[in-house]
Please model this.
Amino acid sequence: MGVIVGTAGHIDHGKSSLMLALTGRDPDRLKEEKKRGITIELGYVFMETPDGGSVSFIDVPGHEKFIRTMVAGVSTVDCFLLVVSADEGVMPQTREHLDILGLLKVDRGIVALSKCDLVDPDLQELAEDEIRETLRETPARDAPVVRVSAVTGQGLELLREEVFRMVRAVRARSSEGRFRLPVDRVFSLKGFGTVLCGTGLSGVVRPGDTVEIQPGGGRYRVRELGVNDHRKAPVGTAGDRIALNLAGLDREDVQRGAVVGEPGWLRTLTSLDTRCTILPGEMDLHPRQRVRIHLGTAEVMARAIPMEGAPIPRGGEGFVHFQLEQPVVAVPGDRFVFRRYSPVLTMGGGVVLDTDTPKVRARFREARLSHLELLNRGDLADVLMEVMEDSPEGSVLLGDFCASSGNDPGEVSEAARRLVDDGRAERTADGKGDRLMPATLAADMRRRIVGVVESLHRRVPLAPGMPSAELARALPHGTPAWLIRYALQGLTEEGALTRRGDFIASPASSTELSGELLTEARRIIGLVEAEGFQGVELPVPGVRREDIQALADRGMLLRLKEDLLTTPEMMAGAEEIVRKTFGDDGFRLGEFREALGVSRKLALIWAEAMDSRGLTRRQGEIRRLRPSSGG
Model:
């Protein structure tokens, strides 16, 4: 895993020459670049660090006409090397490059005061003072200034030491999560096909992996990959300069601005909600102003809509909704720059807070702004709480949240842990993954389930409990099955409810009937047995259906069919009659009817009931008692 350093600075201040002197490699590779002596396209060179690591330099154009290329180059860098020539000092592109770096939050860097061989020490001192004054109001105010000359070698060793010191302080990018790489260079090699280059933002990629390119959605196998200056590498990780040779990819199928990632999670978007900073000194951002957005390595036209309805003044900040004219790939947390449509000047930049958002409606403005304020604070725990509260199921699958938001899975898991520790949420795993829910949702579901079970005990004291299969029907329509299972598991583990076979009961309820309840049960059973093998059809006069069901649940009544009752004793009696009458011999339905003394229709009901209980076995028109049914 390496560190990416982006160069910056005005045209002809010696960025490419310094790269060549510092690394021994020329970043300018095009014939036109060498002919004209200016950088037109992004260049890449590498330098090993003393600890065996790697520094990747992205050399960007300094000419104002190539600002879009410059932004594509620095959009994924960790820190910068600003080059200012001692003979010219700070120039317009110096300031614009610094503005762009600041808007992209690339705050760590070094200034190389170049071409020191052309001026005396006094002029070098003046140039350095101007640089420090320029940096004074920026986050890079403490950046070291190193006086160098690519011609004489002055300061190059000191510059290397400063670069090594800077990259050691850079926090390594996380390779957790899904692979994502914005494409900043595409070329073809004879015999190899199309090659894509970019900086890995997250995840890992290996030869043989399948990746997806968006926009477009094409999926390709990684034939071979290069990392930094190693052509064949076993793996590319976040923070590496990665070259991907993809099987079956045609050159015209991809261009700078595309994003390569793990299949299935990158989405193309046509709208963004953002928090923006407007640079001082240029112009206000007006509603529906047409701008150029530079996001990742892509440039698209867009309409900017300040969320509060009024222009955002120069030097100000605010929430802005962008309606994009072409689709891009982005996730919340991505930083971007936007420039005037014409004349093309950098206006501001910001951070993506939400994606694929609807147009701004006045009646929903306050709620929308509150949501963006929450996202802007960046507290993942609060964001997770809001996502849960807005979810139809009242929960969030952490894997889905990571995929849609672009947040690091480790950070999301830590935020979820904090919510659980604070008592604000509960966490479970179901068939869809790791799930988080508000503690209030879980507590309410537990109260509802206990209430349903205790209500059943009060209404139907004869019942052994609530049948597990009936619990969902007793709860509000649409209650998720995972939530019922989770709440029920907690209730049984803590002893608030108990399981009795297929039933859920209150621990305070009796397992066996006694006293008045047993007397009532015997009364009902007596009414049924009094009808003999005729059985009793529902409804039974003077007996509630709930009590019939309760005794059936306890096994004290049997259903010959849905509305015809008998008892276990009557079933045992029918079995005994068959045994005494037919023994091991088979019997036909007519013979069985005569033995029980019932109608043919009722005999068929009894015969099928005995079959279903495994007392008899049917073979064609003959039935026999099963051997295991004997005493």
